[in-house]
Specification:
alpha/beta, 19% strand
Length: 141
Amino acid sequence: MKKKVFVITESQYEKILLYTFGRNKVKVYLDDIRTPLDKTWLVVRNYQDFVYLLNNIDFTKIDVISFDHDLSDITNGHEKTGYDCAKYLIKLCMDNQKKPPFTQVHSANPVGSKNIISYINNYLKHIGEEPTCGVAFVPHN
């Protein structure tokens, strides 16, 4: 039997299906530690789950993605961060000629935050869109 790689819980997977096939839009909160007080956020804890989510949901069903930078996600000696997640999002957008969903950054890491914001906003400028990614505060516990 293969090991389960992803840590998306069964209830979260049900949320993904609901948002994918329903009328609601999902709010994605990428963070390894914090959990938003607003329970309507879909919490994604690491790079692998983020990639899984993006590969299994229609972008039009994502309302917002809120990024943390430091994910404490080390695979094969390489740390995967929120910046890696942002790069994956933009690669998917480029490969499929899509505009990314609305994005924001809630990370406490100022350098990491700036890198994520710059990367996403540069892509938005490249496709002729207004750069809208910025810092946000999402109340959490």
